[in-house]
Design brief:
Homotetramer. By secondary structure, this protein is of the alpha/beta class. 41% of the residues lie in helices and 21% in strands. It folds into 2 domains: 105 residues, Roll (Urease, subunit C, domain 1), CATH 2.30.40.10; 290 residues, TIM Barrel. The longest helix is centred in the last third of the chain and has 22 residues. Bound molecules: inosine (NOS) and zinc ion. Inosine binds next to helix 1 and strand 7.
């Protein structure tokens, strides 16, 4: 059994269901889908054969906004106002974080994501070289941004610039096609205009993406207008931070003109409904306007301190329900669109491929249990995936043809969990001793 997790080999998923038809999926030794169809098994002499009967195939999901190592802070501070939560609970604890903590927390995050069908994620945090090591070992894809926060102080800005440059250099030196760097200006309320402009220019020069929090709360918009006389998306645009490779997380309080601007710039908006509801930001991302103006609308969980898990199947349901409820329209964000947000739109946001099950695409594939209660009866696979199932229905996960989980087994799971639990305990102990 263990050898199926080892090196990259050619794989045949035999007799699996896609959109109601039974097909084979052949994956070559470079990790691409070589053929899909009734006779795909004849096209390769596969090293590994996965039995696809009683399985539904879907593209691997892409989590476009998270802080992976915040798994260690899960349940540490809940039921608070966003500003209090950050300043009283989260930031004081993060001051004690070490690289080892981030490594262990990110491994736990990867485990959780793999177990719920996610193959790629967009991460913003600290000690990202250690997060990249965790992802490399777990076999997923990720884009890493150092969370750039200068609080308007020039000295701090210099340090953040150095940290950002060091991460980009490190990630590029890994030469791992699954791992990319991005620039991570945290938000317009934690980064000066000088800092934002540097981020915009640096991203352009390095040809990498930008990962930023945008218009999460009404306070962010009110303060921005009072201080700068313009709204947050306009400010970001003037600093060169709205590009086709920008992922803007939350986007809750955008007005219609800002949605048009995001569409014109080809920005990806990452909807994070669970975090938004938990922190009561009191407005749902204007999905209808972003869609109307052509922004790429993707999905994310945010960190585990505000969600409190990384299950994208659950997140699709939250997205579909929140949009309907908030904008009083039961026809808004139907199941098929929620699946596209979690797959194709996410892959487009991070540039990891088409995010579809098509020939020539990277074999980022999730197999769901067709016999699970949540998939019974099976009138519409998308409907069950969005409204009925959660990550527990995910049986097998492949990323770039590599098998990361099979029949719910992930290699090394017990050790990852126990080491993360110990790291979280020790982090809280250190913070409490210091206070
Ligand atoms: O919802 C959120 N809004 C704003 N900041 C957040 C949220 N969740 C996490 N962080 C914070 O963003 C930084 C990333 O480098 C971290 O300090 C993390 O705690
Ligand atoms: Zn966030």
């Amino acid at each position: 059994m263990n050898e199926i997790f080892s090196a990259q080999r050619s794989v045949l998923i035999a007799g699996v269901t896609i959109d109601g038809s039974t097909v084979d999926i052949a994956i070559d030794e470079t990790g691409l889908i070589a053929s899909i169809g009734e006779d795909a098994r004849k096209t390769i002499d596969a090293d590994i054969v996965i039995d696809g009967s009683d399985r539904l195939a879907m593209p691997g999901m892409v989590n476009t906004h998270t802080h992976a190592a915040m798994t260690l802070l899960r349940g540490y501070g809940d039921d608070m106002l966003l500003q209090d939560w950050l300043s009283q609970k989260i930031w004081p604890l993060e001051a004690h974080l070490t690289g080892d903590d981030v490594y262990r927390g990110t491994k736990l995050a990867c485990l959780e994501m793999i177990r719920s069908g996610t193959v790629a994620f967009n991460d913003m945090y600290f000690f990202m070289d250690r997060a990249a090591a965790a992802v490399d070992e777990m076999g997923m894809r990720a884009t890493f941004a150092y969370g750039f926060i200068d609080l308007g102080m020039e000295e701090k800005r210099e340090a953040e610039i150095k940290a950002t440059e060091a991460l980009t250099t490190h990630i590029k030196s890994l030469n791992n096609p699954r791992i990319q760097a991005a620039v991570g200006p945290h938000s317009i309320y934690t980064v000066s205009q000088e800092g934002l402009s540097w981020c915009g220019e640096y991203a352009k020069e390095q040809d990498i993406g930008i990962h930023v929090h945008l218009s999460e709360t009404e306070k962010e918009v009110i303060d921005c207008v009072a201080q700068f006389g313009k709204r947050p998306a306009v400010l970001l645009d003037e600093c060169g931070c709205l590009t086709p490779r920008t992922v803007a997380a939350h986007c809750c309080w955008l007005d219609e003109a800002e949605c048009r601007l995001l569409g014109e710039r080809g920005v990806s908006a990452s909807h994070n409904p669970a975090s938004n509801m938990k922190l009561a930001v009191n407005r749902a991302m204007p999905y209808h306007w972003l869609k109307q103006y052509g922004a790429n609308i993707a999905l994310g969980t945010d960190g585990c301190a505000s969600n409190n898990n990384l299950d994208m199947l659950e997140e699709m349901k939250f997205a579909a329900l929140l949009q309907k409820f908030a904008w009083n329209s039961p026809t808004l964000l139907p199941a098929g669109e929620a699946v596209s947000m979690a797959t194709a739109a996410g892959a487009r946001a991070l540039g990891t491929g088409p995010g579809t099950l098509t020939v020539g695409a990277p074999a980022d594939i999730v197999l769901l249990d067709a016999r699970a209660a949540c998939n019974t009866p099976l009138f519409h696979a998308d409907s069950n995936a969005v409204y009925a199932c959660n990550g527990g229905a995910v049986m097998t996960v492949l990323c770039g043809g590599r098998i990361l989980m099979h029949e719910r087994e992930v290699p090394g799971e017990e050790e990852i969990v126990s080491e993360a639990a110990a790291a979280a305990r020790s982090l809280v102990d250190r913070a409490e001793q210091a206070s």
